[in-house]
Specification:
Number of strands: 14
Shape: elongated
Helix content: 25-40%
Structural class: alpha/beta
Low-confidence stretches: 1-11, 375-387
Bound molecules: iron/sulfur cluster
Mean pLDDT: 89
CATH class of the largest domain: Alpha Beta
């Protein structure tokens, strides 16, 4: 960090900006997404005591303040200066779809650059779970997924990922008790922002969420899993498996051409050993593709004896794909086959099929509407009102 210049009101607005630049920070400062030590650097550059940084971040993360002017425990003069040099990002709700069949609400949020991301809130009896996106679009190319159809657009920042949680809380009035990083994008391809987001969620000046209430899902980036294991964060790892043998997995998920099942399960085992956390394997059941007796047997052979749990997910159909969900009887038989061989398996209840709740479908549907109106690919224009 460069020399910190004490800024006073006499220096005026340009003095504050110069002091922040001299501290090696860029102006305007985006506060949402900052750790406490980063915010302290900003406040120090303004000549303010360290405790002001915590006050500012508590307003942003815990009280969801939209502007500095609301921060009533800061001096008025400091609030004015912060308004000039800083900003607080806030995703704009573009669409809110409430499922009539279950407790799922899906949001499409517009970003500052006009792109859009999806977030899903699932209510359970005592708590709510938010499923957040880490990228706009996705380059992983999984053949059953809508998120990848338009390709990768850009990475999300830690602040943009965190604001998805803050926005669904504000729009539903429901406190989020669990977070799954399983929306659009491959989180381990946006590694730094994802880890910063997870750490921020846990900070006491933010939501204070326990790491054990956070799940990070990956399509199978083995080096990313190894890196995550070394972080020392006891978050749950979810591996998107979807096939029990390499040849079939390569057809469904291009990532399998780079790392085979032996490497993937080996990395997941090492993750479980390093963190003490049982690994979840996500397995989407696709009619006639990966839901037969052979696949159930192969999956049981692959995972028996491992610290693992299988989450069976009936496919949420995507209009652009020919895949269909497995019938209920096939799902039950698949689950029973696994359990007979000692592999724990649960069937995730089908959620939000009536509201495009599968990864990427809502953004895709809105992009198609936008294209029909001659708008850009990710843009959404109809605002919805929050509560
Ligand atoms: S399933 Fe996940 S990793 Fe695969 S294409 Fe969709 S968003 Fe990307």
């Amino acid at each position: 960090m460069g020399r910190i210049m004490k800024s006073t009101p006499k220096n005026g607005q340009s003095g504050d900006a110069a002091a922040i630049s001299a501290a090696g920070l860029s102006v305007p400062v985006e506060f949402k997404g900052l750790f406490l030590d980063e915010a302290e650097k900003v406040l120090a550059a303004l000549g303010e005591p360290r405790y002001r940084a915590r006050q500012v971040l508590e307003w942003i993360y815990r009280r969801d303040a939209p502007s500095f002017s609301e921060m009533s425990n800061l001096p008025a003069e400091l609030r004015s200066r912060l308004t000039v040099i800083g900003r607080i990002l806030r995703l704009a709700p573009a669409t809110k779809n409430v499922s009539t069949s279950d407790e799922t609400t899906k949001f499409l949020f517009r970003l500052r650059d006009g792109e859009a991301v999806e977030t899903v809130l699932i209510r359970y009896r005592q708590w709510a779970s938010a499923c957040v996106s880490t990228q706009v679009g996705c380059r992983m190319g999984c053949s059953f997924c809508a998120s990848t159809i338009g390709g990768f657009v850009r990475q999300l920042t830690a602040g943009e990922i965190l604001d998805q949680v803050l926005r669904v809380q504000a729009l539903t009035g429901q406190a989020v008790g669990r977070v799954v990083v399983m929306g659009t994008g491959e989180p381990l391809e946006n590694y730094d922002a994802t880890i910063k987001f997870v750490r921020l969620l846990h900070e006491p000046y933010s939501l204070g969420l326990g790491y054990r209430h956070i799940t990070i899902s990956t399509s199978g980036l083995v080096p990313g899993i190894q890196r995550l294991a070394a972080e020392g964060l006891p978050v749950t790892l979810a591996v998107s498996l979807h096939a029990p043998r390499d040849e079939l997995r390569r057809q469904l998920m291009p990532v399998a051409k780079r790392w085979d099942l032996e490497e993937l399960v080996g990395a997941a085992d090492a993750y479980g050993e390093a963190t003490g956390r049982r690994v979840t394997y996500e397995y989407t059941l696709i009619d006639g593709v990966n839901d037969g007796r052979r696949e159930a047997r192969e999956l049981a052979d692959l995972l028996a004896g491992h610290l693992a749990h299988v989450n069976l997910i009936p496919l949420n159909p995507v209009a652009e794909r020919a895949f269909r969900p497995s019938p209920g009887a096939a799902v039950r038989e698949f689950q029973q086959s696994l359990e007979r061989k000692g592999v724990a398996a649960t069937v995730r209840r089908e959620m939000g099929a009536d509201i495009n709740a599968a990864c990427g479908q809502l953004r895709r549907a809105r992009a198609k509407e936008g294209a029909a109106r001659g708008e850009g690919a990710g843009r959404t224009d109809r605002p919805v009102k929050g509560r």
